[in-house]
Specification:
The strands form two sheets. A nine-stranded mixed sheet has the order 2-1-3-4-11-10-9-6-7, sandwiched between helices. Strands 5-8 form a two-stranded antiparallel sheet. The chain is globular and about 50 Å long. Helix content is 29%, strand content 23%. By secondary structure, it is an alpha/beta fold.
């Protein structure tokens, strides 16, 4: 392929710059370009080769029938944008990678639900919030994610307090931490649709996370080939 594939990366209009830049860098290391996609900054998914749904604020409980908590910060415009983007990407069979919040809203888009607060749902778990790899996750050997990461037990970071509860139709659990909290999802079919509860973009020095981005980019290249096109030449947004 003569051009790098281009991947749309979702985020909010008002924040998340660090996650955007680290995702952009991780995709660049893996051989892809990135376009920032927000509620006010639309991206034509017909013109890109994959979709990365990024991290950020909590998800509106109205979307999955959960308990509304006035104290948490939500972004309804982003929720709506990302669910529509996921639905369109699934219809186009674009490779999809959900990161932290992105894994959660991927689950909601597939009809699943969330725990609004993992410390209430799992009362005895440690309160861990760090971009550093301080948590172990277990990836069963029979999952596709284990092949993508090339590991069965990996150290990851933790920057979340929502988590997957009921898994959406068409998805399955692909990773759990030592306390039973869902840490990874994958589509039950053959398309590249994965969600990870951690932030792999901050762990670009770790081989499993570098491999995750490389496999994602490989899937984007394969998608472009399957539709008989060069990878998208859309301009890369700053």
């Amino acid at each position: 392929m003569s051009r790098r594939p281009v991947i749309a990366v979702t985020g909010s209009d008002g924040g998340g710059r660090w996650m955007w830049w680290f995702n952009r860098f991780s995709l660049w290391l893996a051989g892809a370009g990135a376009l920032r996609m927000t509620p006010e900054r639309s991206v034509d998914l017909d013109a890109v080769d994959a979709l990365l749904v990024g991290g950020g604020d909590d998800i509106d409980a109205d979307l999955y029938g959960g308990e509304i908590r006035p104290s948490i910060r939500i972004d309804r415009a982003r929720d709506t944008m990302e669910i529509k983007a996921i639905e369109q990407a699934v219809a186009l069979r674009l490779p999809i990678l959900g990161v932290c919040r992105g894994a959660q809203i991927l689950n909601v888009a597939y009809g699943g639900t969330l725990h609004a607060d993992i410390y209430e749902a799992y009362g005895d778990i440690p309160r861990l919030r760090t971009p550093l790899p301080r948590k172990w996750v277990n990836i069963p050997e029979d999952t596709r994610l284990s092949g993508v990461l090339n590991c069965l037990r990996c150290r990851v970071n933790a920057i979340h307090h929502q988590a997957v509860d009921r898994v959406g139709q068409g998805l399955r659990v692909a990773a759990l931490d030592d306390h039973g909290v869902v840490q990874g999802l994958e589509q039950t079919g053959e398309d590249f649709v994965f969600g990870v509860q951690w932030h792999p973009e901050f762990l670009f020095l770790h081989r499993p996370q570098r491999r995750l981005y490389r496999q994602f980019v490989n899937a984007a290249e394969a998608h472009a080939e399957a539709r008989g096109a060069e990878p998208s030449s859309a301009p890369h947004a700053p």
